[in-house]
Design goal:
It is a single chain. The protein is of the alpha/beta class and 197 residues long. The chain has one domain (40-188). Helices cover 16% and strands 17% of the residues. It is built from three helices and eight strands, in the order βββββαβαβαβ. The protein has helices at 116-129, 149-152, 164-177; strands at 58-60, 64-65, 71-77, 82-85, 113-115, 137-138, 155-158, 180-188. Strands 1, 2, 3, 4, 5, 6, 7 and 8 form an eight-stranded mixed sheet that branches. The relative contact order is 0.24.
């Protein structure tokens, strides 16, 4: 999974007795302003988060706390004319179901099984359209790479506890629009400031 990060690479090259040093710095884009690498912990605190209570048909789990104050919040919808694809393919990835959302949300014959990644990716893009910094989708906090779909804690991420309820609402709106039964999560993650190579 990709995370926005600032990476500095210094390359020193020695050339015999008359050695010279060349330094090259490569920078990738990183959020500025309030998202400018405060630490590898999420911004804000859980105290500002209140789970949306007006979402009939959904179960919003309490945050499961993990390392660096990160958290995983499971969002589940039991009923729907479509199901969320969570099965593994031959290569080991979770590739069951349509990889893109159907053109007609009201026609369950189009994509009766929707891949979890399609829902999470759509939620990620919606967060970005609202100018919220979203670290991506996939393995969530406390997730187990060796486990099944549930153990992975598949999630769409946010960096700020203040954005958590918004992310939950976006996911539930997608589940309702496409009438999907299943679960994904929201990951509240920190912002890594640098990656040492």
């Amino acid at each position: 999974m990709m995370r926005a990060a600032l990476t500095a690479l210094t390359l020193a090259v020695g050339c015999g007795s008359g050695s010279s040093t060349t330094t090259t710095t490569t920078t990738t884009s990183h959020p500025t302003g309030p998202y400018a690498c405060p630490s590898d912990h999420p911004l804000g605190t859980e105290a500002v988060y209140t789970a949306p209570a007006d979402l009939p048909g959904f179960v919003i789990a309490a945050p499961q706390h993990c390392a660096r104050d990160e958290a995983y919040i499971r969002i589940e919808r039991a009923a729907g004319s479509r199901k969320l694809g969570t099965g593994r393919g031959k290569g080991g990835g979770f590739d069951e179901g349509c990889m893109t959302l159907p053109a007609d949300p009201a026609d369950p014959a189009q994509c009766p099984v929707i891949n979890a990644g399609a829902v999470m990716t759509a939620a990620h893009y919606e967060l970005e359209k609202r100018h919220l910094v979203a670290p991506g989708v996939g393995l969530g906090p406390c997730g187990d790479l060796n486990g099944d779909y549930a153990a992975w804690h598949m999630a769409v991420g946010v960096h700020d506890w203040n954005d958590t309820a918004t992310a939950i609402r976006i996911v539930t709106e997608l589940f309702e629009r496409y009438d999907v039964a299943g679960f994904v999560g929201v990951a509240v993650r920190g912002i890594p400031c640098a990656i040492a190579l």
